[in-house]
Amino acid sequence: SKLNKISVLQVGNEDLSLRLHIPDYVEWNNINDLKDATERSYDVCVLNRCVNEKEARILLKKIRAYTLFLLENVELDYWTEWIYKSRVGKIYSLNKLQEFVNDDIKLFFSSGYGEKFDALSLSISQSFNGSVSWDGYNGVLLNGEYGDDFYQIAYWKMNVPLFNEQVIDFWLEYEKDPTVNIQLKIEQFQSGSISTVQNRWIFNERDLESMVSIENKKMDGSIFVSLLARGKGKLKIINLHDHHSRKSYGAFFPGGVRYVTSKREEVFMYFDPGDMKPPLCVYFGGWKTMESFEGFNMMRRMGTPFLLITESRVEGGAYYLGDKEYEKNIIFGIKDCLKQLGFTNKQLVISGLSMGSIGSLYYGSKLEPHTLLLGKPVMSVGTVAANERIKRPWSYPTSLDVLAKHSGDLSEDSVEKFNSKMWDAFDNANWNNTILKMAYMIEDDYDMTAYHKILSHIHNTSVEIIGKGIHGRHNDDTTSVVQWFLSQYNKTLQIDFNRGEE
Asked: pTM of the predicted model, to two decimals?
């Protein structure tokens, strides 16, 4: 079995593994003196005694939020309750703990992973006689007759492995006329065979209203995915996402939250309450094709409450921008964390690099945080696509998909309109009480003007701006940008929120 080892830290003088049945893929560490907890991080923690302040602070570093389980007889004194709230714990009886170990502890593997069945690896059935038009990662549009019964209309030319006991979630982004019906079909071959099907799953539209999951109780083997259709009319197949599942425990990480709009567009957030003291640090992830949260270790090391935000529409993200419904989810997610902590927007730091800087600038305009911390800032999002032809040929073609997605086409008019979406938000914000910290690339080939244009759009002289220019194009010296970004983060935390180096 390819199940990852799950490492458990159990704190208490009685070793509970003697009273529980522990599967062989679980590594049970019963440690009463936390000095002996040598691992950097544990996947699950079981507490069957109270802890003092020193122990609570060690646990804060050793265990992730949403992975703490307290036995019901443990008294919630001050520090035990503090770590229970900080790690968003659950209270279980010994029986409930045994059930959890039997059924669900396998879902607490250490890292989250997702990807797309690549839009460009989609094949359309030879027997389809209607029209087919491709629109990059924005999908393929079919229009025509599909027949009276469900027939394969498309399949993805990419197989992914599915191990024994593994669970994978799928989410299909699509649009269609009501006169068309679809089904998603997943088949798993036996390892080493291309003809012996050992599992078959078929999901109808009703199933596809939520994420669908497959669980493999048989041998390892790769899966093949196809789309069946019947009826006639338009069918747009956009993207098929697959994630290593944690079932109801969260998206990508335990505790990860998934927001999805009526147009089937997703955004993901992960909130860690940290030491529950200001500020809340929000980090918008950058552009990437692997789907999961980014920046977890970096943000966690700061010890503060933090919120990770990520999305992977189009190829590696569509800049966190969208329709009203989409953007409302992001604003709600950030405000909800502030509310849980009892913080105001003056106890909020919003940060991001490159694509993450777009999210930071746009939502920063609406939330007016204490500090906006950016690396490689991008403001003129339409111009990024326009630069693909002359300034940056073939180096970031997905920018054309993003422009087409948000504006409908690639005209100069669309470039301007998409740019002004960002600048209008920026110009309507009150930057009086926000500190802007930006490291920009002097020869940036994505958005050359961002830094200087931001300066010229700030009309209030009392705004504090800290800028650093670094030579190179957009992706030439990420190391220097990240170093500066981290050192400025530390300064913000030390000087503005008097958090010493722990």
From this structure: 0.96
